[in-house]
Every structure is written in C-alpha cells, then in structure tokens.
Write a structure and sequence with these properties.
Blueprint: E1 25-28, E2 31-34
Antiparallel strand pairs: 1-2
C-alpha cells in the first residue's frame, strides 16, 4: 500500500470526528484494526473521484 497526498476537489467536505465518541476501526483485507483515534480524516482508495452537490 502506498500513501498519496492529494488535494480534494473544491468544496469537497468530509467528517473526521465521530459524534458518538467511539473509536474508529479500519478493515483491511478482512482484518479489523483499532486506530485508537476518534478523528482520522479520510481514507480513500485508488481511482476515487470526489466532488460536491
């Protein structure tokens, strides 16, 4: 897996804080990982396009 820093499309919005105050888990190749974080920003995959309505 490689990390790529990108500039999201103008007006793209994300939510990076869980309102229910629970920790964030990530599932990768069927395994569940605890991030020990309540905010994580965004994780996007290959060939994803962002935009706004």
């Amino acid at each position: 897996m490689k990390t790529v820093i990108l500039a999201a499309g103008t007006g793209t919005k994300i939510a990076n804080l869980r309102i229910d105050k629970k920790l964030i888990y990530v599932v990768l190749k069927g395994r569940r990982f605890r991030t020990n974080k309540r905010r994580i920003g965004v994780i996007i995959g290959d060939n994803v396009q962002t935009g706004k309505n």
